[in-house]
Structures are given as structure tokens and as C-alpha cells.
Amino acid sequence: MSENRCIITVGLEIGGGQPAADILDSAGFPWVHRYGAPHWEDDATRDALQGVSAILAGSERFDASTLEGATELRVIARNGVGYDNVDLGQCTKRGIVVTYTPGVMADAVADLTFALLLGLVRHIPTGDRTVKAGDYNVPIGEDLPSMTLGLLGCGRIGAETVRRAKGFRMRVLVNDPFVDDATLQALGAEAVDRDRLLAEADVISLHVPMSADNANIANADFLAAMKKGSFLINTARGGLVDEPALIAALQNGHLAGAGLDCQASEPPVGVSAELVALDNVVASPHSGSFTVTARIRMAQMAARSMVDVLQGRVPEQVVNREVLEKLELS
Q: What is the mean pLDDT of the chain?
């Protein structure tokens, strides 16, 4: 039995951490389950990392403070695609491999993108409330084939969103400097610059990572440049949106609505709570990856990354690849 100790901080229910636990058991690595509040305080993370070699992590913060006593930590396996809460420089300095789980949740998030889009365009939440109230004021929506979808960013999730849009016979525009025109053409999308994307799309969907450059990218100028009467969808990160500016655009009628799977504050408080309370906002609790299939695949990929590092191998999905120069992994 290995002396390496592992910790799992995601739920152990089916579709959560149990598939990861099974993989760790098979590899002979003892593990403990520390699943507390949805968002741990930093002190709880710091305490949980004492004497731990590997962590299958949720949304905890990993910075110089929380990693202070994590002298045995070798790998942080993020159970998701975002790693904005991880100080990659600090991890690299300490020789900690950071991994993530790209691709396995693309279908789930793309599905929710279209659920939010359909909810907005066909006024499904409004219609539901109307029927339950015993009223039959029928809201008028629009046909998706008559609309243009614009994607800001087109990685794995964006590509799956394009495929769904083509199934609805929508015209699709994409602005992503990291994806070549031929790839987009093969998907059935057209590469455009940012100005054209905002001016022509009836729906803008955000599919870029959270970073210093992308923080509040959907600001007042961005929203003002969007087509009047258009919709904004965000299934990426709440910090991409300037929430006071979005509230103003929704209240003054420039935008027809917004579908938000994420908010700057989760659960929503303050401005975020004011935003999701608007009648022309459809909100969900950052549940884009919460399907049984996606959660199982995410947990399995994360657990395999943990096992790879602890057994001396380079895992498939390393975020801070420069750390490999410090380690003896094959």
C-alpha cells in the first residue's frame, strides 16, 4: 500500500467523486472525502491539504496562503475546465502538477447553452409562470433558423455549440483568434472580427476562459455594440460580465434578455442577485457540467491524473507544463 494520501472534495454521489474513488482504490492509494460547503473558506482548504499528496479539487482556491503547509502535495487535479482559482506560478514553484478535465463536459455545457437560448427566445419561464397562474397570455417568440448566433471563443464547448446551432439551421459567426478559418468553416461557422460579431448576431454566447484580459469583457461598450433586441448567454464564468452594465442594458431595452449559468457572486448576492431577479433573465446555478455522464467522465479523468503523477507518469492534461522540468516523470 502506498503512503501517498489523496483527498476528494467533490460529492461522492453517482456522477460525482465515486468513480474517482474507485480508480484510487484500484491503484492502491488511500483517500479521504472532505466535502463541505459548496465554497470552502481558504482556511478549510489550507487545513485539508496537510499531509496530502494529491487532491481532486472543486472550486477551492489554491494560492500561496492555502498552499503554505502543503509540503507533500504533488498534484492538484481540477474537476472541471476552469483553473482561475489556482495560482499556477506558485504551484510550479512548489513542484505541484495542476491538471484539468477538458472536453468531457463539452456536450453538457453546449446543451445548457441551447436550453438557456430556447428558454429566452421562446419565453419558456414566462410561459410556465403564466400557465401556473391560470392565465393564457401567450408570449411571441422567434424561429431559431431566422436568427444568427455569435460565439466569442470556440474551443471544445464552443465547437459543440456550433454543431447544435447548425442542427437548428442557424447562421453562426465566431470570433476566436486562436482557431483557424478552415476549422470554423468545417464546423459550418464564419470567422469574423469582434465588431461584426456584435453588430450582426441576434445572440452572443460567451465561450472564453476567465483571465485578467477577459475580466468584464462584456462591459458597457461591448453590450452597447450588440444588436438592439439581442440576447447574451454566459455558460463560462460570471467574471466575464460587467453585471451593472448588463442590468442597465436589460432595463433600458437595448438587450432583450440574458441567459446566465454563472454569476459574479455564487450564490447571487448584491448586484448578482439584482441581475438574476430581472424578468428577462433566465438563470441557472452554474450547472452546465452537471449531468451524470459529464460528472463521471470528469471525476475519472481527474483521478487518472492523480494516479499518473503519484506513479511517476506525466498525466495527459497538464496545465502548468513548465513544472515537468522540475519533476522526474516519464
A: 93
Q: Which domain holds residue 149?
A: 106-283
Concerning whether 160 is annotated as a catalytic residue, the answer is: no
Q: Of 74, 286, 295, 304, which is the active-site residue? A: 286
Do 143 and 242 reside in the same domain of the chain? yes
Q: b/e per residue, 194-218, with b = 16+ CB within 10 A?
A: eeebbebbbbbbbbbebeeebeebb
Is residue 42 within 8 A of residue 61, CB to CB? The reply is yes
How many domains is the chain built from? 2
| Domain CATH number, residue 94 | 3.40.50.720
Predicted confidence (pLDDT) at residue 39 exceeds the cutoff of 90: no
120 and 98 in one domain?
A: no
Residue 125 CB neighbours (<10 A): 15
| Residues 63, 208 share a domain | no
Q: Which of 46, 237, 295, 297 is catalytic?
A: 237
Q: Is a pLDDT exceeding 50 seen at residue 32?
A: yes
Instruction: Please say if the pLDDT value at position 1 is more than 50.
Output: no
pLDDT at 202: 98
Domain boundary among 283, 301, 316: 283
Q: Where are the beta strands (DSSP E) in 81-222?
A: 97-99, 148-152, 171-175, 190-191, 203-206
Active site residue 286: yes
Residues 150 and 223 placed together within one structural domain of the fold: yes
pLDDT digits (tens, 9 = 90+) for 152-209: 999 999 999 999 999 999 999 999 999 999 999 999 999 999 999 999 999 999 999 9
Question: Is 311 in the same domain as 179?
Answer: no
What's the Cα-to-Cα distance from 17 to each of 26, 71, 72, 204, 312, rounded to whole Å?
Answer: 14, 24, 22, 34, 23
Residues 90 and 219 in one domain: no
